[in-house]
Structure formats: C-alpha cells, structure tokens
Specification:
With about 110 residues, the protein is mainly alpha-helical. The chain has helices at about 35-45, 55-65, 75-80, 90-110; strands at about 1-5, 5, 25. It contains 4 helices and 3 strands. A hairpin with a 2-residue loop joins β1 (about 1-5) and β2. α1 (about 35-45) runs antiparallel to α4 (about 90-110) and α2 (about 55-65) crosses α4.
C-alpha cells in the first residue's frame, strides 16, 4: 500500500499507524474503468504471472515514480528490492516501470500543454 505516497508493507503495519493519513491500495488506482498507467504497463510487459507480488510491485513502482519521474534502471532495481517475485519476472518488471515512467511523463507534458 502507499501511505502518504510512500510504499509501506501492509502485512506489518498496524491500522493505528496509518490513522489520519492518506492510504492507497491497488484497488484505488483505476479510474473510470481505466487501469492506472503503472497497472497498464505491467499488463503490457507481461510483468506478472501468478499475481502474488503484483499489488506490492505496482504500488512500490508508483511510489518510486511519484518521487522520481525519470528513474534510471539502477534506481528502479534499488527501489524494488523489498519486493519478491516468485516467478522471477524481474526484467519485465523493470521494463514495465520504465514504460510507466515514460507514459506518466508524456501525460504530464500533454496535460501541461492545455
């Protein structure tokens, strides 16, 4: 989950620790029936198989992109180190995050041009 836009492991975070703070889960990302660009990038890149790690990976990636809109591959790998993928799709996860970063930057530029 994201707590105030920072990735946080829900499995070890007591509810009282997030009282009064902004909490976002994977379910909160889609808007109007459209996947968030990070979700779409994971889908497009085939960055998941069993789905076990997907919510945590996507939310960690989004937290990274909120802090750093144009991360290097090294920064992506470093940010994702706290998440484990049982299927080993790490290269596709890194690719998906790069795609999402580019999409979010393009959307921001297009939105700023209006």
């Amino acid at each position: 989950m994201l707590v105030d836009d920072n990735p946080t492991h829900a499995c070890v975070t007591p509810v009282g620790a997030v009282a009064g703070r902004r909490v976002r889960t994977i379910e909160a990302l889609e808007e109007g029936g459209r996947l968030h660009p990070v979700q779409q990038a994971f889908l497009d890149a085939g960055a998941f198989q069993c789905g076990y790690c997907t919510p945590g990976m996507i939310l960690t990636a989004l937290g990274l992109l909120l802090r750093c809109p144009d991360p290097s591959e090294e920064a992506i790998v470093r940010a994702m180190q706290g998440n484990l993928c049982r299927c080993g799709t790490y290269p596709r996860i890194v690719q998906a995050i790069g795609r999402a970063a580019a999409e979010l930057r393009a959307t921001a530029v297009a939105g700023g041009a209006r």
